[in-house]
């Protein structure tokens, strides 16, 4: 395979995927509406076909224009979009769909492909745009991939957990980086041992390419850092990457409630550990970036951006009240 079509390709995961494909000598075309700045606009190696992926005719036109060997679907959010794509690209060498670790229904450690149950998806959820239906929609997209493979289509999926790294427009990690860069004492809910598996974005990009090259039709592959860190360890890794020292202050539910907060107000906190097995992907030859290096690149990008994670801020004044309460205990 040497000719790739990336549906999406300009914002976050798709942007890193395009870079990874270029580094591995692919001819790359991106297909999107053009609503966001194209970081590859001045790169002659990257072609651009403009169109809406929800427009079936536009998708067919992209196929006829590019004649891709591999298709990477970064922006399929509804099952119908996946169904249209697999039927459009029936004869490609690989169609890779980005699913999500949120597609899993059962809470178990770790969550394994083909073993851990997926979420159900109702007809209403399949067409809904809300956050609550995101996991069910991704799970149904996986089932579309499985069915397509049963018809001989070389369709596969990757399931990343929480993705972080340069150009992350969600700003989830940016909240914690901003706290570390600006404060000496960082409030962490609970005892700091909460685990929500994360995946460095460049590793998600390389995983998609490797799955296209080495994966099996009808299979899904989890993607996540090979080394997991707790919430407190993540703060420490950020501090090391930033070259600073911080004090992590644990706050229980009672102390948080006294300031009108609860643990879930802190982004990347999760009561039950969310852990994905990545052994299946590793068996294809995939490797992940060491967490320390991934965080160094993330902090460097944060400093060069205008992102501060303020959308996720529970309020520094409330945190200060928590710190004052804890200081009196």
UniProtKB/TrEMBL annotation:
Transmembrane parts of this sequence: none
InterPro entries: Epimerase_deHydtase, NAD(P)-bd_dom_sf
Disordered, as annotated region: 120-139, 291-329
Domain NAD-dependent epimerase/dehydratase: from-to ranges: 4-224
PANTHER family: DTDP-D-GLUCOSE 4,6-DEHYDRATASE-RELATED
UniProt record similarity statement: Belongs to the NAD(P)-dependent epimerase/dehydratase family.
Name by which UniProt lists this protein: NAD-dependent epimerase/dehydratase family protein
Organism (species): Haloferax marinum
